[in-house]
Amino acid sequence: MNKIQEQGIGIQINNIGKSYGERCVLENLSLTIQKGEFVSIVGKSGCGKSTLLRLVAGLEKMNNGTIELNGERLDDLNRYARIMFQDGRLLPWKKTLDNVCLGLPKEKKENAIGALQQVGLKDRIDDFPSMLSGGQRQRVALARALVHNPSLLLLDEPLGALDALTRIEMQNLIESLWKQKKFTAILVTHDVEEAVTISDRVILIEDGKVSLNQPIKLPRPRKRTHPGFSMYVEEILGQIMHKKQRKANFDMLLSPSKEEQLLFNSINN
Amino acid sequence: MKLPNKGVIIPWLIPLVLLISWQFLSWVGAIPERILPAPTQVFVACMELLSTGELVDHVSISLGRALAGFLIGGIIGFLFGLFNGVFRFADLFFDTSIQMLRNIPHLALIPLVILWFGIGETSKIFLVALGVLFPVYINTYHGIKSVDKKLIEMGKAYGLRGKALFFHVILPGAMSSILVGIRFSLGVMWLTLIVAETISAQSGIGYMAMNAREFMQMDVIILSIVIYALFGKLSDVIARYFEEKLLKWNT
User: Membrane-crossing residues (chain B) (predicted)?
Assistant: First the structure.
C-alpha cells in the first residue's frame, strides 16, 4: 500500500487555496519542490505554513488547486509521505519499539530496531514514552517516520518544544539521515536560523502566499559562524518583519517627543 | 523504622481497630447483644453456617447471580458504548433512547420485574444486568469519544485503518475510562443484588439476612453485612488488578 521504496519525490503545488469558513488561509499558492530537496517553510504563526504541510500530507482537503507527486495527483492520504508532528504524538500505551512498529508489517520488526539505533535509542526499546525526555520522544517519532523509508518526510515544527542544545543535536541528526536516505523533506518552522542551517531553500509564506523563495547556497555542514549564514538569516528575518517599516518606527522612537523637548528646554534655561 | 509490608498492613489498621473496640465494648456490656452481637458471636454463627453448608450455598448463589448479571449487562453496555462511540449512525439511533432509560432508577422496576419474572433467578440477574449496563455504557462511550483526535489523525497518517486503528489507538485510548465504568458498575452490581435479594428471594445472602430477621438472629444479619463488605473489597481488588495491568503505561 505504501509506495515508499523509490528515493525522493518531486512535488508540484499548483494554485492551491484553503479557507476555514470565511477565513482564507492559503490563496493561489504555487510551489515546486525537486526530488531529494530539503525545503523549509517559515512565516509568522497563523500564516498557513502548517496548513500547507497538512495539505501535502493529505490530512486535509484543499478548496481549489492541485498537488502532484511525481506527476501523480494527490487526492487522498499521501502514501509517499510520513509526517512528524510537533507534539510527537507517540502512543503513550505502547513501548518505544511498538510505537516505531506502528503500521509496519510484523516481519519488519528488525527495521524498527534499526531505526531506533539510528536515532541512538536502541537501549530504550522497552520504555514507555512517559519515561523519555522531550528530545528522546521526538527521536522516537523520527524513527517511527523513517522506518517506513518515506520518499517524502514532512516535519511540522518537530523541534519547537525542545531546548536549544537538543535542537542542534536533532537538526544534525535529521540532516545526516536526509543525506543518507535521500528523501525529499519539507520542514515547517518558525526558527529562521534552523531553516538556514538545514535546508536547500527557504520559503516564506505571508498572507497565504509565497512572499520569498530563497535558495541557501552555503556549503554543508553549515556553520553559524560562516559570514553568509547571518546574511541569509538577516535577509529572511528582515522580510518577515518588514524592516523598512520597523526602521521608521525606530526613528520615531529616537526623535524626542514634544513633552521631552519642553522638558529639555526648561532644564537648559 | 520501616515495616517490611507497609502497603499491606496500613490499609487494614482502621478495620482492625474497629473490630477490637467493637469486641471490647461488647465484652464490657456497653453494646447490648440485642443491638449488636460481638464479633466472636458473629464468627461462631459463621462457623455454624459453614458446617451445615448453608453459608456456602447462599454465597455461591449470590456470587453466581452477581457474575451472570454483571457479564450480561457489562457486555451489552460495552458493545453499545463501542458502537455509539465509533459509528455516527448508531450514536444518533441509540443514544437518546439509552439516555432516557438510564435515568430511570432501575430499583424502581422491582415491582414490575417481580410481576414479569417472579422471584426466581431471572429477576435478579435482569436487575443486576440493568444496573451494570449504564455505567459501563456511559464510560465506554465517553472514553471512545474523548480519545485524543491528534492520535487518531496520527494513526491514519501512518496507514492504520478500521480494525488496526481501533485496536492500536481507539480502544487503548478509551481503556482508562472503560475501567472506571467497570469499577463503578461493580458497586452497582452488589447494591442491586442486595436490594433484590432482600426484597424477594428464596436463597442468597440477602435472603439469609432477611430470614434471620424473622428469627431475631442478629449474628447472622451482621454476618451477611460483613460478607457484603468483604465482597465489595474483593471486587475493588480485582478492578485494581486490571487497572494496573492494562494501564501500566500511565504510571
Answer: 12-31, 66-89, 101-119, 125-144, 165-182, 188-208, 220-242
